[in-house]
TrEMBL record:
PROSITE patterns, sorted: ALPHA_CA_1 (PS00162), ALPHA_CA_2 (PS51144)
Named cofactor requirement(s): Zn(2+)
Known function: Reversible hydration of carbon dioxide.
Family: Belongs to the alpha-carbonic anhydrase family.
UniProt catalytic activity: hydrogencarbonate + H(+) = CO2 + H2O
EC number(s) from the headed UniProt entry: 4.2.1.1
Domain of life, source organism: Eukaryota
UniProt source species: Drosophila lebanonensis (Fruit fly)
Signal sequence extent: 1-18
Keywords assigned: Lyase, Metal-binding, Signal, Zinc
Protein name: Carbonic anhydrase
Record domain Alpha-carbonic anhydrase: where: 20-273
Amino acid sequence: MHFIAVVLACSFVALSGASHEWGYPDLDSNQDEPFPNWGGLCDIGKKQSPINLHVKGALKGEFPSLEFKNFDEHQKKLEMVNNGHSIQLSGFEHELSLSGGALLGDFVVEQIHMHWWSEHTINDIRYPLEVHIVHRNKLYPNISMAADFPDGITVIGVLYHVSNQPNPAIGSIIKSLDDVKKYSAMNKPTKVKDSLAVSDLLSSVDGYFTYAGSLTTPTCAEAVTWIVPTETFPVTLDQVNEFKEIEYDEGKQLHNNYRELQRENNRAVVLVQTSQQKSAAALQLHCLSLGALLLLSLVANKFLF
Ligand SMILES: *[C@@H]1O[C@H](CO)[C@@H](O)[C@H](O)[C@H]1NC(C)=O
Ligand SMILES: [Zn+2]
């Protein structure tokens, strides 16, 4: 009996030890430092994330609209943790659910974390910050189980662009960062001081890319339906720099935590646009042809008279 307990304890230590072994190159110290191999599916998978999302290479898609439930509820009991790889929020009071779009079934928000710089790029452009809103398919009892199934997880990847205008939602996360920045506070969840509604992080989803990919951290499970809105939101570089101060080891700061781009391997990347965006595009086209007509008639007038 004791023997079993010891073996179990040892394998637990070995497992949790292993989770600290993977990491990111410190690109602030050496921009040529290669991204390490994380092993397993991370190295041999064929549907890995992140990827570059091209508007031109995407397939046009039409789906019912995404349905967000409780995303605008003010969360008053959120917890924040520095897990050595990111800053993660959890402890949502009301069940936040996502359905519709190309999704089959209901997904609930499990946790939110961030990457600095962005993991996905759009038209080869990298953004300073990407927030991941991680959802579990309600069919499965927990996220580790969900990671075993291709329809197990949906992640909304929200991109932020550089601006002079501080982002209030990111600002309210930053307010609690000091409590978790130090290595001594790593893996110790603390209460988030400000209340925050998840909808503050993405005011709307007008159009988005969607594709089948993976978690961007080990185990790199290929269980993720990605949703990356085409609209990006403002953040200042000063705000992003606050995240770069979190420690993953004594005196060592996590200067960047994005994974390098993965091979697309001829996967379908679908671009879904809302009817609003489409009518805006149609209006532009309409105006363009009206303009052309006007020009034509002017030219015709000139020649006729
Ligand atoms: C997830 O759920 C399965 C099935 O109920 C269970 O065996 C497993 O221990 C759970 N894992 C975690 C991490 O809670
Ligand atoms: Zn992530």
